[in-house]
Amino acid sequence: MHDLHATSIKYQNNKLYVLDQHQLPLVENWLACESVDAMVAMIRKLQIRGAPLIGIGASLLLGHLAAQGVATVTLQSAAEILRAARPTAVNLMNNLDSMLGVLNASGPAALPAEAERLFHEDVVLCNAIATLGADLIKPNANILTHCNTGSLATVGVGTAIGVINAAHQQGKGIHVYVDETRPLLQGGRLTAWEMKQLGIPHTLICDNMAALLMRDGKVDCVLVGADRIAVNGDFANKVGTYSLAVNAHYHKVPFYVVAPNTTVDIDCMTGAGIPIEERAAAEVRGVSGSFGDVCWSPNDTPVFNPAFDVTPAALVTGWVLDKGIFNQAKIAEGVLKTL
Ligand code: MRU
Prior knowledge:
Layout: E1 4-5, E2 9-12, E3 15-19, E4 30-32, H1 36-44, H2 51-67, H3 72-83, H4 90-106, H5 111-134, E5 142-145, H6 160-169, E6 175-179, H7 186-198, E7 202-205, H8 210-215, E8 221-224, E9 228-229, E10 235-238, H9 241-250, E11 255-258, H10 282-285, E12 286-289, E13 292-295, E14 308-311, E15 318-321, E16 324-326, H11 328-332
Parallel strand pairs: 5-6, 5-8, 6-7, 8-11, 11-15
Antiparallel strand pairs: 1-2, 2-3, 3-4, 9-10, 10-14, 12-13, 15-16
Helix pairs in contact: 2-3, 2-4, 2-5, 3-4, 4-5, 5-6
Pathway: Amino-acid biosynthesis; L-methionine biosynthesis via salvage pathway; L-methionine from S-methyl-5-thio-alpha-D-ribose 1-phosphate: step 1/6
Family: Belongs to the EIF-2B alpha/beta/delta subunits family. MtnA subfamily.
Keywords: Amino-acid biosynthesis, Isomerase, Methionine biosynthesis
């Protein structure tokens, strides 16, 4: 396989490496990933995360294993094990379906090229989204975003953050409110880090501060990513997205979901069909990262920890995809099925 480089994943001298996002931003540590078990563990621990990135990471590993001479039947079972690593983001399933389609049609020798194609495709999709979405952003806009949707979550410029960065590059004088994103702090740890790297003016807030900023007229629009978009426009994203959408609707703040077409699930008609991952209680009782593990609750406190929630299409102003920006009427016509 050819060498490939992105912010948080790279393929170099026949080895796959992942930037350990669990340790960011304090420690920048690249981990070699040689096996399916290692990739599954990294995905579960969110060392590699973000809907597009886990799909590409799993595909690159399969391409790598095929290049090492691993047999078809082993590659097929590897794909099934990888598919089960996280249940909500459909990019993983969509990318693995592409890999399996090529494996079944052309054999293992064709897998490295397919993995590379998916890698380069994500870059192109992110660029298309950024160009389209930037037109929505008004000069001097205050944009609120949740979780992390940038170059750490994709192999390109990102989705919602790609749009934000394009508007910034165009000199629109934007400012970003970064939701901290409890429980795993992707906003506070990763988006704040990316905003700093990109030189974009930003302010970090706790998730429960968004409503009062909206009440005070300090948010012009909300941009978020997605892990799975159903045919009717309902979508799953990092937990907390739904309450942001409710708040935005109440305060009449435009609310956009930003994603590549690889995030659309054409077999899923409504948000009710999206599986929601539930994660370990320790993530809510405290935090962990390069600073160590902290538990601030009694260590047996009962916990509810859904990693994602579903936002109904009725709360969405627009769906910003690589193929266009769609409003509620277009979504109701079933445009997502035709992409
Ligand atoms: O659990 P994570 O950190 O993988 O969740 C990520 C998100 O929810 C992102 O918003 C989504 O994957 C889109 S990334 C372009």
